């Protein structure tokens, strides 16, 4: 029977989720514009360079085309919390934190996209430093671990970047086309409603005229019943 705890280091709380760990340990949702493979590369890059060291990740060319904001958003999802300040610069496996946060329950907990959202007062610098020191002790990898992490690199970063730009242009054109179709449908629907409202009145007058002719043709007793 396998253990439910992440298998990495045998002592302490410094753990790394390996590929053979149970997928149910922490199932986060990737941010829009990210693939599962890209999210896994970011996870390894955070372990190697530290949380928030976006410039080093960009320089490594392991995530061509990704911006600071995009990486920060995906990091939040992996950590399972909105604030990343308490992990700034730390070489950690974000999934370990994400697993821990996924188990936190309570009426005071608010989540958005699976992330715990800040609801209290803004943390002071002293409190952030205290939390960073605590998280370093609990979760940071050893230097031997993070320095030996290898990141996958594209064969031709420039070619990959151009392909991403082309895909972005294609999606933008597709979005504009959908927006145009929606606008046309709304305009067409409004026109049809106006036409339907305009044809009701003449039809009603004609029906009244026909009814009067029928009544006049009937005998007196039957006319009284029809008029009633």
Automatic annotation (TrEMBL):
Record's protein name: Myb-like domain-containing protein
Residue stretches of biased makeup (Basic and acidic residues): 192-205
SUPFAM superfamilies per record: Homeodomain-like
Compositional bias per record (Acidic residues), positions renumbered to this chain: 206-216
Source species, domain of life: Eukaryota
Organism taxonomic ancestry: Eukaryota, Fungi, Fungi incertae sedis, Mucoromycota, Mortierellomycotina
InterPro entries listed in its UniProt record: Homeodomain-like_sf (IPR009057)
Start and end residues of each stretch annotated as Disordered: 186-228
């Amino acid at each position: 029977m396998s253990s439910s705890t992440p298998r990495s280091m045998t002592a302490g709380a410094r753990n790394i989720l390996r590929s053979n760990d149970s997928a149910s340990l922490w199932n986060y949702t990737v941010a829009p514009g990210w693939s599962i493979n890209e999210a896994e590369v970011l996870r390894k890059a955070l372990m190697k360079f530290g949380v928030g060291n976006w410039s080093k990740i960009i320089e490594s060319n392991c995530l061509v085309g990704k911006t600071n904001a995009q990486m920060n958003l995906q990091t939040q999802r992996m950590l399972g919390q909105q604030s990343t300040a308490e992990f700034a610069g730390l070489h950690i496996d974000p999934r370990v934190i994400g697993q821990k946060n996924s188990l936190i329950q309570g009426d005071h907990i608010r989540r958005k996209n699976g992330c715990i959202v800040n609801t209290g007062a803004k943390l002071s610098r002293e409190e952030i430093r205290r939390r960073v020191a605590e998280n370093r002790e609990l979760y940071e990898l050893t230097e031997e671990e993070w320095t030996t992490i290898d990141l996958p690199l594209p064969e031709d970063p420039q070619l990959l970047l151009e392909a991403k730009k082309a895909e972005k242009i294609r999606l933008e054109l597709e979005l504009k086309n959908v927006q145009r179709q929606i606008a046309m449908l709304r305009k067409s629907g409004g026109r049809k409603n106006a036409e339907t409202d305009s044809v009701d009145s003449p039809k009603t007058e004609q029906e009244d005229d026909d009814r009067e002719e029928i009544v006049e043709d009937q005998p007196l007793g039957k006319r009284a019943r029809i008029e009633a």
